[in-house]
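Q: What residues go here?
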């Protein structure tokens, strides 16, 4: 992975676009690739320093016999219905974003995804969806200057009004 990160960092460095003094398109991929490389270096050092065979396990796998997790759906090795629901939701997100716009489709996705995963608090799911979508709009449009789909019809009008409210021109 470290070698792949090095190659991809080199490839991202070949992106040459005149942006007129603004952040160029190579900055974000290079930042993410640099974080990947740092994580790889951390893992290599950790494994060399402590070769005891440590393996990470989840909370459910630490539950012993007689625990509340035993025999429940959470102790099963997989959740194919949740997986299928998550995959369907990602596909629906991809196809709905051009017509619903980034904000609406992302808010719906971020609200429904935890519900599919098993979170049964509708107000929390809704709050996560709206807050997450707002945060992503601000990051992408105000910080990274990335154009996002506005949607069609009333969704476009809503997106434009929201962007004006957020101070995005």
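A:
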């Amino acid at each position: 992975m470290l070698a792949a990160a090095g190659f991809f960092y080199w490839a991202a460095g070949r992106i040459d676009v005149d942006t007129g003094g603004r952040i160029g398109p190579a900055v974000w991929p290079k930042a993410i690739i640099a974080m990947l490389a740092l994580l790889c270096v951390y893992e290599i050092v950790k494994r060399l320093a402590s070769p005891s065979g440590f393996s990470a396990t989840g909370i459910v796998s630490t539950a012993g016999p007689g625990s509340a997790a035993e025999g429940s759906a959470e102790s099963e090795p997989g959740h194919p219905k949740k997986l299928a629901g998550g995959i369907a939701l990602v596909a629906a997100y991809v196809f709905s974003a051009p017509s619903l716009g980034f904000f609406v489709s992302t808010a719906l996705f971020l609200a429904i995804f935890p519900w599919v995963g098993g979170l049964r608090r509708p107000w929390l799911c809704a709050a996560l969806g709206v807050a997450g979508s707002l945060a992503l709009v601000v990051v992408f449009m105000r910080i990274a200057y990335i154009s996002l789909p506005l949607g069609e019809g009333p969704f476009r009008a809503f997106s434009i009004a929201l962007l004006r409210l957020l101070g995005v021109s």
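A: Context that may help when evaluating the design: Residues 4 and 37 are 9 Å apart (CA to CA). Residues 2-16+24-52 form one domain.
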